[in-house]
Amino acid sequence: MTESTAPRAEHRTVLLRGGEVHSPADPFATAMVVERGHIAWVGSEGAADAFATGVDEVIDLEGALVTPAFTDAHVHTTATGLALTGLDLSGARSLTEALDLVRAHSAAHPADTVLLGHGWDTARWPEQRPPSRAQLDEASGGRPLYLPRVDVHSAVVTTALLDLVPGITDLAGYHPDAPLTAAAHHAVRAAAHAAITPAQRAAAQRAALARAASLGIGTVHECAGPEISDEDDFTSLLELAGAEPGPRVVGYWAERVEGAKDARRIRELGAIGAAGDLFVDGSLGSHTACLHTPYADAAHTGTGHLDSAAVAAHVTACTEAGLQAGFHAIGDAALTAVTDGIRTAADTLGLARVRAARHRVEHAEMLTPETIAAFAEFGLTASVQPAFDAAWGGGDGMYAQRLGAERARTLNPYAALLRAGVPLAFGSDSPVTPLDPWGTVRAAAFHRTPEHRVSARAAFTAHTRGGWRAIGRDDAGVLVPGAPADYALWRTRELVVQAPDDRVARWSTDPRSGTPGLPDLTPGTELPRCLRTVVFGQTVFERLNE
Q1: d(CA 86, CA 524)
Q2: What GO MF annotations does this protein's record show (predicted)?
Q3: Is 472 left (phi over 0), alpha (psi -120 to 50) or beta?
C-alpha cells in the first residue's frame, strides 16, 4: 500500500493511564502503552504500575477517553481548505443572504484573480432558486466568480469567468442562466482552479489537514481525479502530507484503466487505486444522479456517464493489475450499472479474484435489495456519508423533493447493508458536508429513517476500522497490541452503549456485557471534544490548556 505520512520523530515509549481506553482487547481498559509507533499493551490501571518506570513518558489522562483515530474515507482536501479559507455559503439562509456574502467576500479580497466559494443549497432557501448570472455579476463587481452547489455537481458563475473559457457555450451542460453541469461545469471549474497559486493551494491543504487533526481524524482518503482537480493538486497534497506532521493521506485517482500501462501511471501518481469519484452518474441535488424512473420534480432520469460495459472493463483491468477499482454511484440505475458490470468482470476473472481486490463504491445511496446482495457477493466496500441523510433526509428534505417520500425512504440503508455483510467505510465528502466524525456516527445511529439505523458501535467501527479495511488493512483502526498507534483523546461525558433497539441498548449497558462504551450521541447532547490526535505515535494536534 502506498500512503503519504510525515517524517516521524524519534519514537518514545509512552504510558497513558487514568482514563477510558476503547479497546476490544479489554473492554474495561484504563491504560495503554505506545512504543515505536504501535500499540504495545492495553490493560487495567493496576497492571499499568508495572510499566510506569520503564517508559519515557507517563500521560495522566485525567478521565479522558482514548479511541482509535477516525478515518474519513472520502475527502477533497484542497476544496475543503478553500472552503475553510474562502467564501462559505453553507450557512446562508436565503438567496439574499448568499448575495450579501458574495459582496462582502469580493470587497475583502480585491487582489484575488478569481473568487471561489462553495456550499449554496436552494433546498434550504425560501426562494428555492439559485442566483442568476446578472445577480452574481453585480454582487462580485463584475469579477470572475465560481460557486459550486453543495454537492459540487453543478455551479453558478459570473460572465467574467465564462469569458475565460473559449467555446463554453457549445459544451454539454451549458445553460445561459441556470447552473452549469457536465462538461461545461468541468471547464469553468478548471479555469477557476487554474488561477489558484501553489502557495494558495498549499495553504488550503494545510488548513484542511489541520482541521481534520483537530477533530480526531488520523487518516483521510483523498478522492481526486481529472474531473475533480488535477495531477499537480493531487501530487502536491501527497508531497505536503509526507513532509509535515498531520493526518496521513491515502490517495485515489479516479481515471479509467484499460491496461497495465494505465495502472502503472496511477501508481506513479502515488494513488493506491483507480477509484473514488470515477463518475457513473452525478447527484440528486443537481438532478444528475441516474435513475430507473424519472425524478418527482423533473421529467427526466438524470445523467449516466459509464454503462455496465465500461464498468466491467475498468474493474477487469484493475483487478488484473492488482489495483483497487471504484466508482461514484448514487442513483439506482447507476448502481445497477456498477453491479452488472462487476458481475461481468467476475464471470471473466472469477469471483475470488474480484472479491480479493476489495473494490469500492462511493455514496451508494439508492440501493435496492438486489444491489445490496450484489455488494455482498462481490465484496464491495460501501464508502458512504451518513451526514447526507442528516442534511437532506426526512419527509420534507431534498431527497423527498427530488424523489417523492416513498422512494426517499429507501435511501442510505445502512442497517440492510450490515445485515448483508457489506463492509462500510464512513466519510464526509468534505466540503460537501463538513469534517465531523462524531456527528457522522450520530447521523448513522439516528438515521432519519428508523429502519436504516445502526448501533453507535457499528457506526463508530465504520468510521475508524472501516476506512482501514477499505484500503486493504485489517490490522489497524483499533486499539490492540500490534496496531498502528493512531488514536485520539477526548473530553466527554459518561460512556454508554447505544443501539437502535431500546431493549438492546438497556441490556448492553450492563457492565457484564463486556462491550466498550462510547459517548452518548443522542441528538441534542454535546459531542466529545478532541484533546489530542496522534498518528503513528506522533502528536499532530494538541488542544492547549485542557
Answers
A1: 29
A2: hydrolase activity, acting on carbon-nitrogen (but not peptide) bonds
A3: left
Which residue from 307, 308, 317 is spatially nearest to 256, judged by alpha carbons? 317
In this structure, the number of other CB atoms found within 10 A of the CB of residue 165 comes to 19
Q: Residue for cell digits 425512504?
A: 409
**Residue 432: closest CA among 264, 259, 284:** 284
Alpha helices in 130-180 (DSSP H): 133-140, 159-162
Long-range contacts of 372-376 (CB under 8 A, 24+ apart): 372/413, 372/416, 372/417, 372/420, 372/422, 373/420, 374/339, 374/342, 374/343, 375/339, 375/417, 375/420, 375/422, 376/420, 376/421, 376/422
Average the pLDDT over 415-434 and give the result: 97
Q: How far apart are CA 254 and CA 277, in angstroms?
A: 6
Domain 13-69+479-492+528-542 is of which CATH architecture?
A: Roll (2.30)
Burial of 519 (0-12, 13-18, 19+ CB in 10 A): buried
Measuring CA to CA, how many Å separate 34 from each of 15, 25, 60? 7, 15, 14
CATH class entry, domain 78-195? alpha beta
Reported as a pLDDT band with limits 50, 70 and 90, residue 506 is: very low
CB 424 within 8 A of CB 72: no
- Calpha distance 427→418 (Å, rounded): 16
| The amino acid at 199 | A
C-alpha cell at 203: 495553504
Q: Is pLDDT of 401 > 60?
A: yes
Q: How far apart are CA 467 and CA 455, in angstroms?
A: 18
Closest CA to 361 of 345, 390, 337, 344: 337
Portion of the chain with pLDDT greater than 70, in percent: 95
Taking the C-alpha atoms of residue 188 and residue 255, their distance in angstroms, rounded to an integer, is 20
503 falls in which pLDDT band (50, 70, 90)? very low
Tens digit of pLDDT for each residue in 257-287?
Answer: 999 999 999 999 999 999 999 999 999 999 9
Report the predicted TM-score, pTM, of the whole model to 2 decimal places.
Answer: 0.90
The ranges assigned to domains in the chain are 13-69+479-492+528-542, 78-195, 267-383
* Residue 39 φ then ψ, to 5°: -75, 125
Q: Which CATH superfamily is domain 267-383 in?
A: Metal-dependent hydrolases (3.20.20.140)
CA proximity to 409, closest of 436, 459, 449: 449
Closest CA to 250 of 267, 238, 260, 263: 238
